[in-house]
Amino acid sequence: MKASLLRKISFVFGLIVLTTSSVSASTVDEDGAKANRNAVKVLVLALPDNVNSNYFPNSMITEETGIPKDSIDYTYNQVMVKNIIAGNKDKKYQFVTPQKATLISKLLGKVKLQGEEEEKYADLSQVDESSYEQLIKDTDSDYVLFLNQHYLKWQEKPLRTLFHITSYSLYDKNQKEVTHGNNYFTSMNLENKDELSKDSRKSSSKIASNIVKSLER
């Protein structure tokens, strides 16, 4: 019960911090600002308790990375959200985070995951339509990108490798799935926050690129 409460507190705190410290997708020049006002907005939301592994328990992740147990999910989400926003180079689309955390944690708590291991994707069938509509309205968004899971997949053979797999689901403003998928990068061991941020940039940029391609079809 105590651990669960700490995770919930950390998650809500993480939402607030993300909304106030996220990398801005806006440019400083006037033309860039105008382009962003007219851009298609993709709201990026990370699901709670979404770091899982086929090998590493949270205690080992903390021991190897220095990330506190109650901050593991927040740290991975913060890194990926910031890198996705920074990695998007298409000015027709703007990846954003919510300015207010109100009610978002409650909505995310109703999102279920379907699938197994690294192939898990968001199911919004239990999310109330009015709550989702209000989210779209409050954030002035056209789409919602859910970061479903960060799966740490360890393999011993043929080489000892750790796959960092991020799965995602994209939904439109009518609560219909547009696409889902995953992308990954590899490392030899678990990484601290700075290394994670650096090594995940290419993978995060690829996720942003895949979303843009899906929207342009």
* Cα-to-Cα separation, first versus last residue: 46 Å
Mean of pLDDT = 87
Q: Roughly what percent helix?
A: 40-55%
- Extract low-pLDDT stretches: 19-35
Number of strands: 8
Q: Which structural class do you get from the secondary structure elements?
A: alpha/beta
- Please tell me what the overall shape is: globular
Radius of gyration using CA atoms only: 17 Å
Strand content: 25-35%
Order of helices and strands: HHEEHHEHEEHEEEHH
Helix segment tally: 8
The major sheet is characterized as: 6 strands, mixed
Summed up:
This protein has 217 residues and is an alpha/beta fold.
Features:
single chain, 217 residues, alpha/beta, 6-stranded mixed sheet, two-stranded antiparallel ribbon, 28% strand, globular
Question: Could you explain how this protein is built, in words?
Answer:
The protein is built from eight helices and eight strands; from the N terminus they run H-H-E-E-H-H-E-H-E-E-H-E-E-E-H-H. Strands 1, 2, 3, 6, 7 and 8 form a six-stranded mixed beta sheet that branches. Strands 4-5 form a two-stranded antiparallel ribbon. A hairpin with a 4-residue loop joins strand 7 and strand 8. Helix 1 packs parallel to helix 4 and helix 4 crosses helix 8. About 8% of the residues have low confidence.
